[in-house]
Structure formats: C-alpha cells, structure tokens
From TrEMBL:
<feature type="transmembrane region" description="Helical">
    <location>
        <begin position="177"/>
        <end position="197"/>
    </location>
</feature>
<keyword id="KW-1133">Transmembrane helix</keyword>
<keyword id="KW-0812">Transmembrane</keyword>
<feature type="signal peptide">
    <location>
        <begin position="1"/>
        <end position="26"/>
    </location>
</feature>
<keyword id="KW-0732">Signal</keyword>
<keyword id="KW-0472">Membrane</keyword>
<dbReference type="InterPro" id="IPR022472">
    <property type="entry name" value="VPLPA-CTERM"/>
</dbReference>
<protein>
    <submittedName>
        <fullName>VPLPA-CTERM sorting domain-containing protein</fullName>
    </submittedName>
</protein>
Amino acid sequence: MTFRFLTRWLPVLAVMLAVPGSGALASALPGITVKPSPQVDADPADMANFFGFSVFGLVSGSTATTPVTTGLSLFVVADIAADGSFTSGDLAVADGAAAWLNGSLSQIAFTENTAGDDTIELLFTTLNGAAAGEFGPLSVLTLMGEFGPTPFAASAPLATTGVFGTTRLNAATSAAIPLPAGAVLLLGALGALGLAARRRSA
C-alpha cells in the first residue's frame, strides 16, 4: 500500500516552537534521540491514506532573522507495507516555492497505546533545504492518533476512514552505541597481555 501525505487545509492549527532545553523527547526509534527544539506542532492534523498537514506562521527558533510568515506545506510520500517495512519515502517541507526541509525515509517505529494516542515515528536523513542547518542531519516526524494495532494495513483507519490527530516535526540525533561490557574487558585483557610481553622481551 502506498501512503501519501499531501497538503490539506487545517481548520484549526496551533504552531509552537519548543523552548530549547536539555530534556530529550521519548522515541521508539532505536538509537535515536529526539530533540525538543526546533519543533513544529500541527494540532489538529487530518491524517488518512492521503495525509495532510499545513503549518502557518512558523518562525524558526535558530534562524529568527528569516522568519517564515507565509506558512509551510509538509509532504511525505512513502511506500509502506502492512508490516511497517518500506521501499522508499521522502519528506518535503516547502515555504511557498522554496525548499525548507527535505529528507529521505530511514526508519519507521509504531507504538500502540491502549490508554491514549498511538504514535507513528518516521525518521528522515540526508536533510537539505533552508532549515537543514537548524535541524542537523536527522529529523523525526511523529504522528499521534488512534491508528489501531496494524496502522498500515489496508483495513486500518488510516486507509479507510482516516485519523484526526496531531503531528510533531523535530530535530534528532543518533546516539552513540557503546561497546558491550565484555568487549571492554577483552580489550583490557589484550592490553595487559601486550604490556607483559613487552616487559619479558626487555
């Protein structure tokens, strides 16, 4: 199934720039830290087989000397299978005719929440455009709504009736993956053996 995220008019839209802070946002994407700033919120957002978001009046937190006053249009086109695997996907955020933020889909994570909104997280890499310097190398688009246990299935609400929820676009970073404790101990033991061998030869 091909899910296309296209621009639609949103009757009610709140745009928020998060105040820079040290706390990271929760994410189910392995090895990814979602930053609280810069952040763009669209609330509510009309999500369906043709998803749509429009963001108006955004002023970029790190580039306030060139504020966006004409509104942003967010497009995502991705070929996503029922199991959440994908063959391709692209992000395109435009400020009028100018490219504001573009990227390529790299990972997808889905979290079902029986006590509240489910979340779909789309990780985009190789960012470019006017806001790429602010967002850095990675961006995460988070969709929040009632998607059901298999959100990308042909019978799921996204592909049938649509879902009315919220969206959030954030900068992200890739967390360093630490060496396992066993590998650290092994490296230490090898170093000790090398030192002992040098002492014997001396």
